Amino acid sequence: MVRLGGGFLGAVLDLDPGYAGGSLDCGQGHRARFVGYRTRTIDTVLGAVSLRRAYYHCRACRTGVAPRDAELGLAGASLSPGLARIVARAGAGEPFAAARRDLAELAGLELTTKRIERAAEAAGTRVHAAAEAEAAAILAGSLRPLAPTGPVETLYVTIDGTGVPTVPKETLGRRGKGPDGRARTREAKLGCLFTGSGLDARGRPVRDPGSSSYVSVIESAERFGDLLYAEAVRRGVERAARVAVIGDGARWIWGLASEHFPGAVGIVDLYHAREHLYELGRLVRPDDRAWLEARLGELDGGAIEALLAVVGEVAVPDAAAVRVAELTGYFANNRERMRYGEFRAAGLFVGSGVVEAGCKTLVGGRLKGSGMRWTVKGAESIISLRCAEASGRWEEVWLRLQPQTCAA
Ligand SMILES: [Zn+2]
After folding, report:
1. Cα of 115 to ligand 1 centre, how many Å?
2. Averaged pLDDT for residues 288-302
3. Residue 405's pLDDT is what?
4. 346-349: long-range contacts (C-beta < 8 A, 24 or more apart)?
5. Domain residue extents for the chain
6. Percent of the chain topping pLDDT 90
7. From ligand 1's centre to the CA of 132, what distance in Å?
């Protein structure tokens, strides 16, 4: 049945070989001359299909041009747009070798693992480039995305980072946490945006179901900030009654927050803050559970000054002095972002559990498998595909990327 469909598709494609007269513009300003009709074979969802199309040659560029290829979305590609989309989805969802087996079993599509890897990463790279171009246009004011029309009560912008294992060339000269002091990973920055409205019966904030969308970039805080802001505009930041940014204490997060969301409530994730407090307790009052409980109580209420005052009076062992200073600095610098009592009273979330879950599933679930080593470009492309899918934008992304698919 599939082979019959492939034959039919080939016949339909042959109806218009894309003859455009004796010569045409090669794309670089020269005239390319018609040479004849040439046949090429492409892989499609219906198997290999050969198609005959008009072929032109530019002497100045020494390249061939087949206008039909571009029309069909086949320029520089050996997979049809429809097959490329399927392969991208499979390769984004599971390791490439597993994707190969599933495509063969579920759809009778026989492709090599390497081809799946290349095609999925190429597709992801295009998806990511399109998202960055869109973000640039939004920032420049030349594009206004369709923001939600209804009220946006609270827009949460939650931010986190997670390490992606990379091939050695991506970490050359970078210092890391490994035993030899060398880096093994690069940081994927991930943003999760969601909206919240109202409180549940027990007075806790509620996340609007299905309202999460994700953006991610490897390393660059600047590019990440642009994508994040553009996504916030798309999610209605300009009409949101309030905006809350939640992250751990990382400096880059709060730099981005003040740049892009100056009016937002900044909240340091309570669980990160608690972990820092546990560590501080171990250093200055080991095995003093009551002391720690009292400090946790102060933290929970957002009484950071009281907490710091108590910590300031404790005798610190010399060996721990540097780390204790770092930890108290963390609380002092972030104090306004730790007013948990006030945040709760205002009906705000105080934890970044959503984005951390995102880091685990979106990034870790696909990129941190045993033995995996990524290039930065490859990792970014696969994460982009996964973000598009998790944001419910899979269909939209492909329509924007390949409008010719509809015509074809
Ligand atoms: Zn030319």
Report:
1. 30
2. 96
3. 44
4. 346/265, 347/154, 347/198, 347/199, 347/203, 347/205, 348/154, 348/205, 348/244, 348/265, 348/267, 349/156, 349/196, 349/205, 349/207, 349/244, 349/246, 349/267
5. 2-78, 140-267+357-401, 272-337
6. 76
7. 30
